[in-house]
Amino acid sequence: MEISKKLKKNFLIEKNHMRVPLMCFLTWITYAAITFYTNDYYSNSNAALFFNVIFMVLSIPVGFLACWWIDKFGLRSAYHIGTWANFIGNIIRLVASGTFIDPSIRFPIAITGQAVAAFAQPFVMFLPTKLAAYWFADNERAIANTLSSMSNPIGIAVMYSLAPVFVNKTTPNNFFNMNIAVTAVALIPVILSIFINKSKPPTPATPSRDIDVQAPPFLKGVIMCFKSKTFIVLSICLGGGIGLFNALYNNLQPALCVKGYSPTFNGGMGTLLIMSGLVGAAISGIIVDKWGEFEKVMKVSFCVAGVAAASLSICINYENVEWWVILSIFVFGAAGFSIYPIGLEMGVEATFPVAEATSTGLIIMIGQIQGVFYVIMTNLAVGKPDPHDTAIQTCVDQNDQIHTVLTWKWPFLIWLGCISVLIMSFVVFFWPKYKRRNYEQAKKLTEY
Predict the structure, then answer these.
(1) Is the distance from CB of 119 to CB of 58 less than 8 angstroms?
(2) Which Pfam family is an annotated match for this chain, by its short name (predicted)?
(3) 258 and 401 Cβ atoms separated by less than 8 Å
């Protein structure tokens, strides 16, 4: 698809906004690929789990504040809040990770820093649809939203690959250097925030952003969202998909290492999940911009992701089947991530003229609520490894930590069951109306 001059110009604005979610998700996912080293270093058997879950838990109360703030004060101020909260949180985490800090207080300080960084998350996760709506034409919004939204998984992919490089068998206590790197990266959007000086262009990019289109007040907008059957189905199913992805990030590394896969392979699978998702999201964004087939693209992608999830849930229980794991994760990532950005755009379409950050924020918050549930539920279903798995596991190096190694057969079957329910519900009940596109088309017809 040929990218217009306007898209090229506004992409410079988009790139600056993209860096914030990327940095936030570097912070969120820092410890997921090094679960056992994290638990040991911070003297808490659930440290890595808590570092993950606190992002999801805090996104719910902070999310309502972020929805209201973004819609009332615009992109610029939200960008500044997001960059600074993330940076300050990383500084606190950096201090906590030093060997000069007493081991007994490392975790309390680190979780405080993680909480501060988590405060930034809603202020940046809710921006893509509003950014696309204000700065891009109607045939550019989906790909613009994709470019911005996918900075989230890029950050995850980068950290999933780099964390095992810093912290591994030979350098198990290298958390301070790892956090120096993450904090340095978090400084970049703080510097870039100097150049963000406006929230919207002087001339509306589309008819839906004309001054005669007034978004309802925040609380009324929330009520309007939940009066829409389309939005309810979308928020539960797409939000559930977000939550299940979060659970997969948290569980993938310990599930693979108990079957003898190397830390390098485990980190690489987290990266592959994201990179394949970038391909799928880019393709789906182009298709939607060109033909507007939100519903068909999402339903096909959801079904393909379900098949790949079933494959992954089976192969995760076997050793020495790298090709099977790679294929399953590649297809699941490509199909699953293609749903996310166009699903957020669909939320805006279904609830127009509700402000973009409100519909997007509600979907993501519902996803985070489900994510907390899925992570806790799957972690409660773990089991003890058999003698063979204990002998081949690569999770821990010390015998006194062998009790922390667990099997993940039942958690992944539960995970698959949840995905299956969401897919069936989405295919049967999701029949959307494109309110924003219909308004824009009617507006254009009246101008001729």
Answers:
(1) yes
(2) MFS_1
(3) no
Looking at per-residue confidence, does 305 or 372 come out higher?
A: 305
Please tell me the total count of domains within the chain.
Answer: 1
Say how many C-beta atoms besides its own lie within 10 A of residue 384's C-beta: 10
Tens-digit pLDDT profile for residues 147-164: 777 777 777 777 877 888
For 335-352, what is each residue's pLDDT tens digit? Answer: 988 888 888 888 988 898
Distance between CA 290 and CA 287 in Å, rounded?
Answer: 5
CA angle 9, 13, 16 (to 5 degrees): 140
Residue 107 located in a structural domain: yes
As given in the structure block, the two tokens for residue 169 are 């068998």
Bridge-partner residues for 383, per DSSP? Answer: 407
443 against 22, higher pLDDT: 443
Q: Choose among 264, 282, 271: nearest CA to 158.
A: 271
State yes or no: pLDDT of 13 exceeds 50. no
1 in a domain, yes or no?
no
Question: 172: exposed, middle or buried (C-beta count within 10 Å: 0-12, 13-18, 19+)?
Answer: middle
Angle (CA) 348-349-350 rounded to 5° is 95
pLDDT score recorded for residue 426: 94
Query: What CATH number does residue 181 fall under?
Result: 1.20.1250.20
Asked if residue 70 belongs to a domain, the reply is: yes
Alpha helices in 42-150, H assignment, sequence order: 47-73, 75-96, 103-125, 128-135, 141-149
pLDDT for 15 beyond 60 = no
pLDDT score of 114: 93
In a domain, 12, yes or no: no
Measured in residues, the chain has a length of 448
